[in-house]
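Lecture notes, unit on protein representations.

Consider one protein chain, 95 amino acids long.
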Amino acid sequence: MKRLVIASLMLMGLTLPAAAVPYCTGSGVSFSFGFAVGEFSESEVNEFNLMRLRQMGVDATAAEKWNGCIRAFVRKPGGGEEMQFFDPDSFARVY
């Protein structure tokens, strides 16, 4: 009986649509000036992304790389926060 239940659950899991998850293929922002200055740390990249989003008018409190995208925690006008996703190359919002 257990095998039948497990098999049916697995079959149901295979036929159900996957949840929508944002995925970005961009590599992020890069600059080239003809000389190397070293690598940026993860926290420096996150701070840069946060600064750039704020310059664009996004009221973000934090930003981080997630699944190839920039995941930002954005203040909602009525209070609270929500997660929003942005392309790392264009900073366009990903839905």
